[in-house]
Amino acid sequence: MSHEPQPVEVQSLVQGYPGRPVLNGLDLTAGTGVLGLLGPNGAGKTTLLKTLASTLPPRSGSVRLLGQDVSDRHGLRVARRQLGYLPQEFGYFPSFSVLDFVRYCAWLREVPARLARDAAVQAVERVGLAAVRDRKLKHLSGGMVQRCGIAQAIVADPALLIFDEPTVGLDPQQRLDFRELLHDLGQSATIIFSTHLVEDIAAVADTVTVLSGGTALYTGTPEELGGLGRPDSRGDSCLERGYMELLTGAAAC
Ligand SMILES: Nc1ncnc2c1ncn2[C@@H]1O[C@H](COP(=O)(O)OP(=O)(O)OP(=O)(O)O)[C@@H](O)[C@H]1O
């Protein structure tokens, strides 16, 4: 039976580093909307996101993004044009102003020159940096730099957005604003983000995948994950109790 292709289709992904296997036969599918990735330290969230952002070629298995097979050079190029990525450690040019940096990133993503400035202005506004758009990056706070990283990821209006721990360094107000932004973007794009904050997942994710033991241990809605918790499970919220119960059960196996 044929199926409708999804924006992200990963099958039997094996990934890792020399002498350090990380993902061992991972399957993952994501459609339009927001998918949150949870997992303990070292579970492989960043490794998976780097693979989806096509900065780390798979060791084996198949990765299809936006209908393109990324092992094919042409397919990779087509997919990259429609992809926005905020890495965990985001590199930037400290002497660039916020607007110039985001505009430069628009140019890198092949946004037509006549549209690049407006796209950058809009992205900077969406992350709440309009008031400091002419300030050099080296003079921004850590949270502002993080927001600039979010702006560069969204500037080309990508169909697929990958954010690695995007809420790190954001103050509570900015975290709430970012969740609203994710919600808005998720109406038309596919968003995959990692976090250690289950509140982020509860607030904005349509689907949650838990990585553990080299694979996707769990995929479902946040409500379904919360339903795995018991009253005596560890955790301060329904979702946290469900998550902890899942990890404890996996550890016991
Ligand atoms: N460049 C690298 N070379 C060798 N090992 C690496 C490299 N990057 C990550 N690792 C190892 O791969 C494993 C998975 O790391 P990864 O950063 O993907 O996990 P994570 O789930 O994102 O962790 P965290 O929650 O701490 O950010 C870890 O054991 C890590 O030490």
TrEMBL record:
PROSITE patterns with a match to the protein in the record: ABC_TRANSPORTER_2 (PS50893)
Gene3D superfamilies: P-loop containing nucleotide triphosphate hydrolases (3.40.50.300)
Keyword rRNA processing found: no
SMART domains according to UniProt: AAA
UniProt entry keywords in alphabetical sequence: ATP-binding, Nucleotide-binding, Transport
Residues covered by the ABC transporter domain: 8-238
GO molecular function: ATP binding
Listed Pfam families: ABC_tran (PF00005)
Domain of life where this protein originates: Bacteria
Similarity field: Belongs to the ABC transporter superfamily.
UniProt protein name: ABC transporter ATP-binding protein
